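Notes taken during the Thursday session

The instructor put the following on the board and asked us to keep it in front of us for the whole hour. The protein is FCH and mu domain containing endocytic adaptor 2. We were told not to look anything up and to reason only from what is written here. First, the residues (727 in total):
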Amino acid sequence: LVLIYVLLDFFFLNNYQATIEEVYSRSMTKLAKTASNCSQLGTFAPVWDVFKQSTEKLAACHMELVRKLQELIKEVQKYVEEQAKNHKKTKEEVASTLEAVQNIQSVSQALQKSKENYINKTLEQERMRKEGATQRDLDKAGLKVKKATETYKSYVEKYANAKTEFEQRMTETAQKFQGIEEEHVLRMQEIIHSYCQSVEETHIQIGEVQEEFVKNMENTSVESLIQKLAESKGTGKERPGNTAKSLTHGAKPRKRKTFAIPENSFYSSSDSEDEDEPRKFHVQIKPVQTNNGTHQHKATIDELKASIGNITLSPTPALYNCHVFFSSNSRLASNDLLSLDPFVPTSTSSSSSIPHLSVPPPNRPTTPLGTATIVPPPRPLSRPKLPAGKLTGISEAVRPFSPPKMSNSSPPPAAPLARAESSSSLSSNTSLSASNTPTVGTSRGPSPVTLASQDALPIAVAFTESVNAYFKGADPSKCIVKITGDMTLSFPSGIIKIFTSTPSPAVLSFKLSNTSRLEQIMPNQQLLHSDSSQSDTNTKDFWLNMPALTAYLRKISEQNPAASYYNVDILKYQVCSNGIQSSPLNLVVYWKCTSSTTDLRVDYRYNPESMQSPAALTNVQVLVPVSGGVTNMQSLPNAIWNAEQSKSLWKLSDISDKSENEGSGSLRAKFELSDGPSVPATLAVQFFSEGSTLSGVDMELVGSGYRLSLSKKRFATAFKITFMDCF
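Then, after some discussion, the predicted structure tokens were revealed:
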């Protein structure tokens, strides 16, 4: 089982990295599209093509790494199945060793009893001789001694045989286990070597792309950019020929002395050039007609400039479209759930609009002044919307499909810490941090609570647990569940002054209850101490190193003096799991794959027995990838389909024993395919629950000087992987 747990951890790690690489590759592809939509005006236009090509190559490199990691994941999955079979086979093979162990234990006990019986009978015979017993009694005692001697001798021989068999069996078993362990380590080294080789090859490819990009940029000189612009906008390299000889050779005198044209004729018949050039191009500049009624004032150059300056021209189409593209992508990046993978950890804060996108683009004339039209200025790009024809799942704002993060953006106020006496749950924006490193709260500034050294100092505690489940098909015996947890203590900022001003502050001691279900406890060695000689397996006593705690709180308070409270990670633990019975949500998935359609059914059942105090599962989301070129989807209940990633998403309401059918239900979907059949894929499920834990661990303060003002409990799925069988 230890080997399987190691493989599962490695599997989850690789799957998580593959998801990150895939999301990064898709983001790079979007970036390349952004570069292609940028302005193509001016000499800088060819540089955008260099950016686009380089970005597309980088996206291809990361997608290639995703493909290699997926192959490695398949290899690890296969190895997990092999280890499960080997575990079962080895268990049968070492059954004889278990029998040998039990045999030598029973023989040892019998040997000890026969030895004691032999000694007692011998001492009794000697005592009777000394007391002068009758010959008849001595004979009876002698028979008993003889019988005890034979029994003792037989058990000595049995023990020798059992010992020989035990040593032989144990040697063989130890060698077998050592061989299995060596084979496992070698196999893991091969897998890690493949992983390192894949990453190294990707880095080499990225380096080559970078070198090519630098080389292309070096080759893109100012002269070449201007030359490309001249070639794209020019009309040719040859100079235009003369349209008429009279334009270049003025040997003959003209009879016309002015540019005035006779009113009755478009061409002048008295022009002497008509004799030499019968087909001549004439340019006529019509003089301004004076009118006493209307045109009494002539426009000056300044007036023309002023009037032209007041004309608002339509912006350059390419530049405007580029701004719209960025703005649309800005919304899609924050609102498009299906573009994100469930294994990718995402921020809970929505991305805000970029400030410059709300300002209209600069007005640049793109047409000659003679043909310019006066148009109203464009509307600000405040909140661009997607076309109505898109899927509703893409246009609507949805929450990212990722585990909810415990944020410090709005920490609980210090005043409730000083007054609240009962255990309660915090809202989502006031959750305590459960990160791996101690965090501080900064949203409310210094704590307004005034703490006195003679008062009981308030502290808060948070238990945060994460459950990962591995399902395969509909066999519950193949379900593996791993549950880990963190315990965090929260101290108000005012407590630091009391700790530093008191020579020897009261030692903070507490007791953990319901620890019999914990498989392993890992306390913070620098801050926490415990008594290893405790006999009660259901409780554990701990106390803090107060000088170390004071120094640590002082250090982080100096780094962030405006915080109202400080969180400290106290210990981590792993919970004993009992397979599918430890999973709060049990799943069974069925696929029916044909060349034209794919039928999918996901059965789920709420399992309140897995929790110490049953609580509702909230924000339940199920993400299903479907291959085969889906053209249409029918689902019950309604799901969101993302055609770009070929994934469907169900978002369910709270699931509990008070829900319909006591928390049981099914998700059904039928997909019409253009390139079937589909291949059954991995499903991802997420949910979280407030107010309860799976382990049932609780904390109780011991001694005086402190009081527990708040206790928060929650558990969530970092991600849940299910493997299905197709029928």
